From TrEMBL:
Keyword Transcription part of the UniProt annotation: yes
HTH luxR-type domain mapped to chain residues: 139-204
InterPro entries: Sig_transdc_resp-reg_C-effctor, Tscrpt_reg_LuxR_C, WH-like_DNA-bd_sf
The organism's place on the tree of life at top rank: Bacteria
Protein name, entry field: DNA-binding response regulator
The UniProt record lists the keyword rRNA-binding: no
Any Pfam family hit: GerE
This protein's UniProt keywords: DNA-binding, Transcription, Transcription regulation
Length: 209
């Protein structure tokens, strides 16, 4: 008797979940659990999931980052794949070699994703080459390019400070903080505050103000 494999689809789209439910259980002999992002943490403790599929069309990148880090810390052995990965945003901070098994861009068809999953089940990672350059060496290089003030501003984001809060802490104007953030965002390849926070959580955890 074969062992049932459990996968989890994290998405706010019922349509996507239904499409996957129509195909993957028969194709891969798996049982799919469909959950909302805010319910994933609790559901992981209640099931024997081996693969989590995150739909980045409906899950915020910052939330996806937090959920994957949770898996990395507390659920060893579970792999993550991202579908609807955005091309126009640098989301390389989401890629963690120990957890991320596959990345599929928004224009990937269901057949493309299924083919990639077949390779993942054989132990082969399915991450585009363009996204594999975010290793430790590059992270260090990005960090080294930041000025001390830019590091301080990024670190302050981790505490939930607003631009005005940071300006008051550093005794400069709010417009100066915006300039530092703009320059820092360009250097580390992010385009939003949430992405910057996620990047800082990974790469600036040892920086002290």
């Amino acid at each position: 008797m074969f062992k049932i494999i459990h996968w989890m689809v994290v998405s706010r789209s019922q349509l996507l979940a239904d499409l996957l439910d129509c195909r993957w259980p028969q194709e891969f002999l798996v049982k799919l659990a469909k959950v909302q992002p805010e319910d994933m943490a609790d559901r992981l403790y209640q099931s024997q999931v081996s693969l989590v599929v995150m739909d980045l069309a409906t899950v915020d990148l910052q939330k996806a980052y937090q959920l994957q880090r949770l898996i990395e810390r507390e659920h060893a052995g579970i792999k993550v794949i991202f579908v609807h990965f955005p091309r126009q945003v640098d989301g390389r901070f989401l890629i963690h070699q120990s957890v991320t098994a596959g990345v599929f861009y928004a224009d990937a068809s269901l057949a493309d994703i299924s083919e990639g999953l077949g390779e993942i089940l054989k132990g082969r990672s399915q991450i585009p080459a363009t996204l594999q350059g975010n290793g430790a060496d590059e992270a260090e290089l990005d960090s080294d390019r930041l000025t001390i003030r830019e590091r301080e501003v990024l670190q302050a984001l981790l505490s939930g400070s607003t631009n005005l809060d940071i300006a008051n802490q550093l005794f400069v104007s709010e417009s100066t903080i915006k300039t530092h953030l703009y320059r820092a965002f360009r250097k580390i390849g992010v385009s939003s505050r949430g992405q910057a926070i996620a990047w800082a959580q990974t790469h600036l955890h040892e920086v002290q103000l």
